[in-house]
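Protein modeling request. Please complete all fields; requests missing the sequence field cannot be processed.
Requester role: graduate student
Desired output: 3D structure, token encoding
Chains: 1
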Amino acid sequence: MTDAGLHLPIHDDGRTGRDAAEILRNAVPDAIYAHVPFCRHKCHYCDFYSLVDQRDRVGRFADRFEREVAAAAELVDPSRLRTAFVGGGTPTMLPPDDLRRVLAAIRGPAGDRLEEFTVEANPETVTEAIADALVAGGADRTSIGCQSFDPRHLATLERHHDPASVPRAVARLRAAGIRRLNLDLIFGIPGSTLDDWRRDLDLALALEPDHLSCYGLVFEPGTPLAEKQRLGRIDAIDDEIEAAMYDLTRETLAAAGFEHYEISNWARPGEACRHNVVYWTAGEWLALGPAAAGNLGGVRYRNLPRLDDWMAAEDGLSRVVDVDRPDADTTRGEVLMLGLRLRHGLPRATIEPLLADDPRRRAIVEGHLAAGRLEWRGEHLRITDDAVMLADGVLSDLV
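Delivered output (399 residues):
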């Protein structure tokens, strides 16, 4: 998972076509996730749906997006909406007028209820006009894809931006009125050292963001980076070095006044990403745009993943290619898995009902408690500080 969104498994139950209306009708989402698929370049580590150099279709995308929002707004009860997140792709690849239209369309059904409205940005796309369009469209938070300040490591990721564009983007966003800023960073890039990572953290902190997302590099199946690894053209960094980078992150950001509130996320007090907390606390969200995934009323779904197919819908609603209705056992596992990503963990009042009729998971929890990977801190079950780097194993056991 990134600040851009959440990957949960979806198993198609064969229900496609107009099921979007069935899923949306009378739903009460906590949040909106909107997907803008356009990118200047496909980074080699990215497994999100995106298209390169589709400028001839951008205007039609914005037209179609407005129709989708209008159609969804007729079916969804927006009374509980708290956050919106626009990811991609690169939303700030849209021309300023189209970006403003897309954001205004999202803001429409939400009204003044939104506590947070985040848009992802590539630093080189943040012109003064784009920054002004973000504010005009209602966004109050931006997540900048920084990844690294070292040109060598950006080249390894096939990430095409000049590190100097990051401080320029930050300055333009602040001048336009965007106060809340997140920087995405990646550690464990092949060829990087602990000193390289220390420098990245120091340069990021010098920009005074209120939030940092620091992810260990993952060789996602199907990406060019994973193919390079398969062919022996690139190797993952040594596990001990990656663990040292993670420990350095925790120490450095704690000293700088950041709270470690989720496995890969740090924030100044009160500045946690409220949208992603919706995911981690098993909230519900409406999906807008091609390939966007949503979760409403116990139904997980994904919009059509091809831009032309998504734009062809005549009634405004996207057709749904995947529909999944997780059973009670799957839901219990995911509540545990997502909630334990948060560093304060899950309250006993949530844990006990989940495990009451689940002896298998209760035994797993007790085993991890005995091994020192989980602990009770007050009335919350959490992953111990020493076991955070092993969190994937603990969480997969519970799923």
